[in-house]
Amino acid sequence: MSVRVKVGGGVPRERDGECRFAIHRQEKRLGTVAPWQQKNLEGYVGFANLPNQVYRKSVKRGFEFTLMVVGESGLGKSTLINSLFLTDLYSSEYPGPSHRIKKTVQVEQSKVLIKEGGVQLLLTIVDTPGFGDAVDNSNCWQPVIDHIDSKFEDYLNAESRVNRRQMPDNRVHCCLYFIAPSGHGLKPLDIEFMKRLHEKVNIIPLIAKADTLTPEECQQFKKQIMKEIQDHKIKIYEFPETDDEEESKIVKKIKDRLPLAVVGSNTIIEVNGKRVRGRQYPWGVAEVENGEHCDFTILRNMLIRTHMQDLKDVTNNVHYENYRSRKLAAVTYNGVDNNKNKGQLTKYDTVEGISPLAQMEEERREHVAKMKKMEMEMEQVFEMKVKEKIQKLKDSETELQRRHEQMKKNLEAQHKELEEKRRQYEEEKASWENQQRMLEQQKLDASRTLEKNKKKGKIF
Amino acid sequence: MAATEIARQAGEGVRSLPLSGHVGFDSMPDQLVNKSVSHGFCFNILCVGETGLGKSTLMDTLFNTKFEGEPNSHSQPGVQLKSNSYELQESSVRLKLTVVNTVGFGDQINKEESYKPIVEFIDAQFEAYLQEELKIKRTLHNYHDTRIHTCLYFIAPTGHSLKSLDLVTMKKLDSKVNIIPIIAKSDAISKSELTKFKIKITSELVSNGVQIYQFPTDDETVAEINSTMNAHLPFAVIGSTEEVKIGNKMMKARQYPWGTVQVENESHCDFVKLREMLIRVNMEDLREQTHTRHYELYRRCKLEEMGFKDTDPDSKPFSLQETYEAKRNEFMGELQKKEEEMRQMFVQRVKEKEAELKEAEKELHEKFDRLKKLHQEEKKKLEDKKKVLDDEVNSFKQRKTAAELLQSQAQQAGGSQTLKREKERKNSGFL
Fold this sequence. Notes:
The complex is a heterodimer. Helices cover 52% and strands 13% of the residues of chain A. Chain A is α/β, with parallel strands linked by helices. In chain A, the strands form two sheets. In chain A, strands 3-4-2-5-6-7 form a six-stranded mixed β-sheet, sandwiched between helices. In chain B, α8 crosses α9. Chain B is 53% helix and 14% strand. By secondary structure, chain B is an alpha/beta fold. The termini of chain B are far apart. The chains are: A alpha/beta, B alpha/beta. Chains A and B meet through α1, β1, α2, β2 and β3 of A and α1, β1, α2, β3 and β4 of B. β3 of chain A pairs parallel with β1 of chain B, so a sheet runs across the interface.
């Protein structure tokens, strides 16, 4: 298989606002990665076959695309879809939105599988019967917003599962917004709708039933619309810049003709021997695929043949990421709020680049550190108190001991004193008794002598 | 036309409509290809094998360029992974190639931990991707993918069987990366030995449950060639960056006295097959397998480890928000509980210590009470003794006083007696 390489094609580009990124040229990307060494090959290696491998795999997988059409009834939406995809998506069996008007705006989708040249495309058309048809159309965009958000949510949930499998991409990739060919300017409903949805989906505004406008009127109308779009700062789908000169020229031509004025038809008419799709009027045939009659071909080429992949990429890289980051930031914010961790609110304000899991890890680490510190402090206080108490105990022990010693000493002293006294007394007693005994002896002796004397009769 | 995956996913209730003309969406694959070409491709190869098996040479030969610097020595203390990144271009296709080499693999005496740095490296790349994927503000499509897309496992050309280090390492790696085993320096093996060697290796891998990468056979365009090649695994390769003149051409070859081994000769070695399979046919599939199988497995394990669960297996949609909130609440609750526990523990300890100290205090007081009592007793005894002594002293004193009184009386009487006698004598003397 030969390598078909056309330079250009889907490169996500800059949009100012929340989650936007500017990568036009490869050098920018290469520049941020370090350190790359350029090497020259000295022979054919074969990875130039990679694009073919990618091609093969993509065909095997198949493609899917979701297109939303929004506009008041009767603007030719179903006819345009049928003309775009050259098939009876809407028919008598499957009526278009204008035939299915409900009391309130509904959002309904139909899936069809179409095949061409070996490529299968699963096409989902989302339409909004009832849009703009009521007398009071306030909030008629809400069901549309809800639908887009619910598709984003489905994708986010599928992406966030623990067990993931090949996820179907049902997100709305492009929204064709039909403007009624009044010739004057945008209606308030148009402005309101586009303002509310330009950051959720790629909006491509179209002037419907353009065969009611002359070229000059059309030109004027387009200028007016683009001016109003700019004034209201509505961001419609932008074409990516390309390196290829030819492509750039084509892109510039398209940009000059925005918004595209289209005509659709379900009938085939013969004009100059050719069978073409067109609308038969008494004054001629407005051919759908004639570039001088309307911009249908440009729309088809752009939407299907050249920028379908880019529309999907922008949806995935810009609109979906916006939704996702807003959704996840809300979760984290709520989570933090519940915790009443006042100081940490400011840290998580800049949620850029922090994944919720990493955040929790961070919090866990912080908490562990905090607990450690608290534990240490408590430990310290505890130790100190214990020390104090033990010291006190020791002190009172010493005191009591001392007193006890003192009393003992006292007692001993008294003992000694008593001993001394007793000794003295004993001594005194002993000596006195001795004395008494001596005296007694003397007395005895004396009385004996007296007796003797008496006996002797010494008395005359 | 065979049903595509998308069609199968859509299910039965989808209308299939015929087109009445050329719409143009058959350019979708081209649009996709253009996008990827302008974005550039990236591929990461991990070469695992003992030092000296010719890993760097093979890379040079595969990519027709001189990559790295000097060959490494055998004296590395542990296994290290060195990665080098290169930008290659071939006819407007830009490839960012990263070659990771295991330095020092198989050189240590104890090789039990040899596989660990490799597994850690692979996991680290998965982790980096996972972190990026989980960020709130992320730029996935711009992320430079560093995950290893294929691991070329170099088997030493012993001719007998796989080494146990090989089996252990491959077993650890087979659920994390696409393993392509190759027999290195296969010019050391003869053809007959080679067939036996290959059979032995394959049977050993099968009996040990090692899942090596199988070239995909589900795409008709390449099914045939892939299945043929699957039968030639493991590829026996030779690398050489030297060119030898053979015939008229300069070819990559190795020159021996007994002949010249041509690298790109399919009857000499499987180099061409390896290049064909690795680069020209299945590079994209290797990348896809890494992303959809190995990475998903890692992610699933990691999330389950952190406690995330799908609330309902398939039916109800799973709300990320709820899970995050639930997880967070649970986590905070856990932390609170831990805090409480710690506090409680401290209160407990304080109580215990207080009781202890009170016990000690009580004992002390009791001790001193006892001593006091003893002391009181002693004192009383002493008092008694004293009293006894005092009584004795008193009674002695009384005795003494009484005796003295008697004595003095007696003396007086004696004196008076004496006086009387004197008087009598005197009186008598008169007579």
